[in-house]
Amino acid sequence: MRKEKKPSADKPGSGTCSFKETFILYKRAVLLWCREYPKQFLYTGLHALITAGSPCFALYFTARLLNELAGAGRRAELIKWVVIILTVTAALSLLRVVLFRAKETYAAVQWNCLPSIYTKKILSMDYSAVDDARTYEKLAWVEQSENWGGHGMNRVFWQYERFLVELFKLIGGIALSVTLFSVKISEMTGGLTFLNHPICPLILLGCMVGTAAVNSSLEKVLQDRQNQCAESAKLGNRIFFFMHEFAFNRKRDLDIRMYQQEDSCINLFTANHYFDTKSYFAKLAKGIAGILTAVQTVLPSLLMGIVYLYVCLKAWAGAFDVGMITQYVGAVTTLSSAVTGIFKLAAEAGGNAYYLRGVFWFLDIPNDMYQGSLTVEKRVDRNYEIEFRNVSFRYPGAEDYALRHVSLKFQVGKRMAVVGQNGSGKTTFIKLLCRLYDPTEGVILLNGIDIRKYNYREYMSVFSVVFQDFQLLSLSLAQNVAAGENFDAKRVLDCLQKAGFTEIEEKFPKGLDTNIGKDFEEDGIWVSGGEGQKIAIARSLYRDAPFIILDEPTAALDPVAEYEIYSKFNEIVGDRTAVYISHRLSSCRFCDKILVFHNGEMIQQGSHEELLAKQDGKYAQLWNAQAKYYTN
Ligand code: ADP
Question: Ligand 1 pocket: which of 395, 426, 431, 583 to mutate (most atoms <8 Å of CB)?
Fold first, then answer.
């Protein structure tokens, strides 16, 4: 069977990435960080330079001081080296603190950076992609990879810092150890001159690279083992979050108490062994991971033994002063830990590339909708005409058509109702009208021009929609109605009034400035479903668009409030064209035209009286079915 590697629509591929793919993914990730977060990149780089450089300077000057102590011991020279060591160390420490401060200041920005990249991506997507469950699966995959193991973009940033530290350590280590290999043991001293042979530094270098390579391959095995359990770890992570959140969710808590589901919820946590000593990770730590980590720790210690032997033998044979032992041992230790660190990072990068592939799998979701450029004519007379010409639509990935061969024209300034049973295509019709989706077949025209040719945002501004599952934001009442930060308080009040929301003074202590909900403000106010619906209607009125679309606008209202809305519907809607979706046919009677949808087709249209006259028609059938509850 062919091994799956590349991401598909549903999976980000298998758990391994080639070197080339790793390189390409890392390049994209680093460029993305640099673009979004340039200052943190700069400060982190400079901080890494000082972090790696300080010990090298200290080694260099300390070796000079020790040489003087072990040699001539001149007082002035000793004072000079002490002053230099203190000055350089203090200056570097100060610089390091300053850079650390700058780096940490921007680190606060970093925490917001990834969520905002993902949020911007979602907000810039075609609605058809946002409405697609696969988009959320991709985002969930990315977020869970970050949550359970810090994989993905954040890890690239941490690795960038570690890589720079290792790189600067490597440079410092080479600079301080060059003379260890170049300085020769004098032939006069007799023994140990074989250490002058060029093969010796090569052997030392070979041991260093060999240790690093072995450690790196062990790291790769560890990474692969971790990646293999990514899916189950993420499920564990979901359960973890569920456990910490389920009891704090006001809405969910009600059902859990009523149906006494506490034990089932807690069993979910314990029965799966994700968080006990039988978990995959615990077993990994006890078994292979424990052994491999031990080997990774022991190998560098063995290497250090060889380094000490080489340096001490050369010093003993008189190649350099005893003070230089500190410099050379320190330098080779630094060099070897840098080589090991870089190899390890390379192995980690190979493992993390798998998660980066997931990140770009999400970020690369294309926007396929055609973006037109025509401006929508601003008409004072609001004389807009919409036409559906033989429109059919199938949701992405769906086999059946949600709408079939719909043709109609809207009469401007009229009230039009769309009725039909659940799943008959009413909401889909509205989504196409607002261009949240493009038709699969046919065309929708605004004033005779295909709506795809208009600038998208401008076209959207022609409509005010109150969706059935409308959402309010945790902002002030006024900002919710005005859908923005700046608002005309008088207009806001007027719209609330028209929508039947009259309880402002008694209910909202801070008037229009009261926050909806308590998410961000303690003195915010939770609103009921009916109150929320009135605020949503007020928001649609504030926008003052030529078309107003109301999807079950009174579903959450009590009968009195519903009656109030209908009795002044004409006043509310004014000269706008109103499209009105409802299950309750009695509330559509006042509309000039009623469209009846059934199984995705528009099967009837006409006024209430005309439709009722056709007793064998769907409308009459629905009307009679509902009427019997009121007349019996
Ligand atoms: P109504 O508003 O009349 O209740 P909808 O327009 O919401 O009906 O749905 C029409 C059909 O399209 C239904 O069969 C429904 O299952 C399907 N549908 C609705 N939304 C989606 C979606 N996002 N993806 C796939 N199918 C959908």
Answer: 395
Q: Which residues line ligand 1 (CB under 6 A)?
A: 131, 395, 398, 402, 420, 422-428
Given phi > 0 = left and psi -120 to 50 = alpha, else beta, which region is 463?
Answer: beta
Ligand 1 mean position, distance from CA 555 (Å): 19
Q: Collapse the DSSP code of 515 into the 3-class scheme (helix H, G, I; strand E, B; otherwise coil) and give the result.
A: strand
| pLDDT at residue 345 tops 50 | yes
Percent of the residues in the chain that have a pLDDT greater than 90, as a whole number: 35
Q: What residues does 578 pair with on adjacent strands?
A: 415, 548
- Amino acid found at 586: S
The confidence score (pLDDT) of residue 394 equals 94
- Which regions of the chain carry the CATH code 3.40.50.300? 466-544
For domain 19-231+288-363, the CATH architecture is Up-down Bundle (1.20)
Place 259 in a pLDDT band, splitting at 50, 70 and 90. confident
| pLDDT at residue 30, as a whole number | 92
Given a contact cutoff of 8 angstroms between Cβ atoms, the answer to whether 323 and 193 are in contact is: no
What is the distance between the alpha carbons of residues 215 and 213, in angstroms, rounded to a whole number? 5
Q: Which residue(s) pair with 606 in the sheet? A: 594
Indicate the class that CATH gives domain 466-544.
Answer: alpha beta
Q: Where does the chain hold its CATH 1.20.1560.10 domain(s)?
A: 19-231+288-363
What is the CA(107)–ligand 1 centre distance, in A? 44
SS3 464: strand
Q: How far is the CA of 599 from the centre of ligand 1 (A)?
A: 10
Is 410 in contact with 591 (CB distance < 8 Å)? no
Q: What is the pLDDT of residue 590?
A: 78
Higher-scoring residue by pLDDT: 568, 183: 183
Q: What distance in angstroms lies between residue 423's CA and the mean position of ligand 1's atoms?
A: 6
pTM: 0.73
pLDDT in tens, 215-246: 989 988 888 887 777 766 767 777 777 777 77
Determine the Cα–Cα distance for residues 561 and 500; give it in Å rounded to an integer. 7
Yes or no: say if 159 and 355 are a contact pair by the CB < 8 Å rule.
no
CA 554 from centroid of its chain's CA atoms = 35
Of all atoms in ligand 1, which is nearest to the CA of residue 133? 23
Average pLDDT over residues 273-291: 84
Q: Dig out the tokens for 463 from the structure.
A: 């409509």
